[in-house]
Structures are given as C-alpha cells and as structure tokens.
Amino acid sequence: MPILNLNEERNTYLCTMKLFPNTVRGVVQAIDEIFNQNRYADKVIEKTLKSNPKWGARDRAFVAETIYEMVRWWRLINEVSPSKDLYHLFGTYWLLQGNKLPDWREFNGLDAYKIKTKYEKVKDIRALKQSIPDWLDQMGAALLGDKWDEEIDTLNQQASVVIRVNTLKISREELMNRLAQDGIETYSPKGYKDALVLAKRQNIFKNQAFKDGLFEVQDASSQLVAAALEVEPGMRVIDACAGAGGKSLHLAALMENKGRILSMDVEGWKLQNTKLRARRNGVSIIEPRVIEGSKTIKRLNESADRVLLDVPCSGLGVLKRNPDTKWKLSPESIEKVQKMQQEILQNYASMVKPEGLLVYATCSILPSENQLQVEKFLSSEKGKDFELMEDQKVLAHESGFDGFYIAKLKRKAK
Ligand SMILES: C[S@@+](CC[C@H](N)C(=O)[O-])C[C@H]1O[C@@H](n2cnc3c(N)ncnc32)[C@H](O)[C@@H]1O
C-alpha cells in the first residue's frame, strides 16, 4: 500500500514499472535544475523530453510524472530521506510509494523500514504530510477553516485531463466518437456542457483532432468562467486579462463566432499565442490588443456588453497541475497580487456599458483574492455602480476539478 495519497490507477502503473538508469538520471538532473537552479518545472520537463528524443512514450510519461510528483512531495521527501543526495531523494520518493528499489550503488544507504518509521513520526503534522510550507498551511486553515484539510488533500492529487470541445467545429458527441476511434476514451462530466474528461491521462496534443482545432485542453472549472458571462452572438466583449486566450476562445464559440472580442493583456507575447490558437479554432472575431497604459482602458469606457477580468492570482486552486507554485509563492507575493487584483477591478470596470455584465475570476481558493476583493470593490466609489448577481466558490474537493472563483456583477442603469 503506498504511503502517499496517490490514485490507484497510477500506482498500479508505477509499481509494475522497472527503473532504468537513463530515465532516473533524467529525473534527477531535472530536479536539480528546478530546486537548485530555480527553474520552472514545466519548462524543465519540456527541455528534458526534447533533449532525449529516443525515449519512448512510456519513458516520457514516467519522467514527466515522476518529476511533477517529486516536486509536489518535495518537503515530505526531504523530511524523511536520510540525506539530500538527489538519488537518495528519488529513492525515498520511490519507496514512499510502496515500490521496491533496484540494487544500484546510488541507492546505498536507503532503508525502506527507516523511511517508513520516519514518515510515521511526521504524518500527523499536516504541513509535512501534505508537503506544503508552514505559512501556507496556516493561511489555508485560517481562511478556509474546516474545509482546508480536505481541500489541500485534493489539491495534492493529480489533475485529470479535461478538454473543451470547440463547438464551432464539432459537437461533444461527435468528438467523443472521433477520439474513441483513436483509442482515447472520454466521459462527459455532469454540469459542464462543453467538457470531456479523458479516462486515462495522456498527451493529447499530438492527436489530429487537436491539430484540426476540434478541442482545447481546459479544466472543467475554468470552463465555467466564459459560461458566466452569458454572451450572445453579436455582442461586444472585452477579455481584459486574456493571456494566451483560453477564455476568449471559449467566449468566441459561445458567441458562434459572431460579434467582437477584444482580447487584451499587458504581455504582448501572450496575445501572439491567442492569435495562433484562434486560427486553429476557426475563430475570426478575436482582436488582440496590448494594454500600453491607462489610456488604452480609458478609450474603451462604457464600450462593452461584457467584460471579463480573469485576473492574475496566486494559482492556489490549480496546485494539482502546477505543484511548484507552492514553493514559489510567499505571503508577500500573495499580498502583492491581491493589490494588483483590486487595481484591475477599480480601473477596468468602467469599460462595461450600463446594464452590462462584469465577471471577476481567479484560479485561487483564498477568500482574500476572491469574495473579499469583490466586497471591497462594491463598497468603493467605483463599485457603487455595480451589484453582485451571484458568485461561485469552486473548491477542488467539492467539484472534483480545479479551485476557482467566479463573480458576476451587473452595472446599474444610468
Ligand atoms: C490568469 S491569467 C489569464 C489567463 C487567460 N485568461 C486564459 O484563459 O488563458 C492573468 C493574465 O493577466 C495578465 N495581466 C497581468 N497584469 C495585468 C494588467 N494590469 N492588465 C491586464 N492583464 C494583466 C497576465 O499577463 C496574465 O496573462
């Protein structure tokens, strides 16, 4: 029985897997880059896979998953490992999952019994068992109360792969059948009308249906955001923090590619990505626009039927897919991002027409980034023009998907 709380299917897969020196070396080198050279886990994984073109699909899956899981359980692994040697840390992770280690000299000094005994000693300390910084455990418990225990437990599990059907090109049923023909089984989660969940985690970006723009990879909770805007074909919509355009593309599909979406961001390079994705999706109503300063926003005063503020946030709702976030965040960085969120609300809300809708969204579970921001805005001078219609506090352990917050506000008539 594995000690760590990982799903069964994955453990079966890993337990039957033999370790190979070259892939384990790949993992160890990647971990060195992530923690000792402070690189982003996803970038390091991408580079590792690229520089080892001879690895097969199974090797690639092993390397990518092991790196992610070691990042996720980093604090716990370090706590129970006999040393900080990277092979010892890998071996400790492997043993903690209930696997056996081969007889390699790199693993000398690792004793499964001692590791288990150490684990038993720390497992009642939540921050250690869940492998999170103390400050995060304290903040989570203070802000989420009883719900924190289950929430952090869920956020430490692997995310399922969810796709959003591009309804401009294909229906959900048709896509489901098409993927099934390629041996990819999916199911439709209840309550998410454009989503399909892959029965088994796998890399889907190489599939022809993706290249043909029939779907995008997007978590089910994230798909609730565009739906909250209640768009209609022909509307003028502003996605003010559009990034690479995930929500803009969804909005375009909901608008049947009729009307206009201004996809804005302060980072121009992200909008380049939006353009490419729009082409693949068969979307022509997106106009990317870089925010140069307050003038860009002022020129759009009262111009939009709908404004989406998918603001920068701590990302604590998406820890399942970005486990390194917890090692990069700090109370100070969260405070900084909260300040930015309030500024965006204050400065961008004016782009909504009277009687139009403003949607504020984050992929965070912290009330301080979510409902408290909306309350602060509504009680401010600029917020007096708006009223809260409804909000959704999506927790990972309740929804089964990412943690999100979505508030729908209406601008009052003049
Ligand atoms: C949560 S991400 C958006 C994700 C995107 N909506 C999607 O669905 O893929 C937040 C985005 O806000 C952008 N951003 C940061 N500060 C901003 C600002 N002051 N105004 C507009 N966008 C900003 C970031 O560059 C980032 O792309």
UniProtKB/TrEMBL annotation:
Active site positions, chain numbering: 363
PROSITE patterns cross-referenced by the UniProt entry: SAM_MT_RSMB_NOP
Taxonomic placement: Bacteria, Pseudomonadati, Bacteroidota, Cytophagia, Cytophagales
InterPro entries to which the protein is assigned, alphabetical: MeTrfase_RsmB-F_NOP2_cat, MeTrfase_RsmB-F_NOP2_dom, RCMT, RsmB-like_ferredoxin, SAM-dependent_MTases_sf
Known EC number: 2.1.1.176
Family classification: Belongs to the class I-like SAM-binding methyltransferase superfamily. RsmB/NOP family.
Annotated GO MF terms: RNA binding; RNA methyltransferase activity
Keyword hit for Endoplasmic reticulum: no
Residues in SAM-dependent MTase RsmB/NOP-type domain copies: 151-412
Protein name per Swiss-Prot or TrEMBL: Ribosomal RNA small subunit methyltransferase B
The organism of origin for this protein: Cecembia lonarensis (strain CCUG 58316 / KCTC 22772 / LW9)
GO biological process: RNA methylation
Domain of life (superkingdom): Bacteria
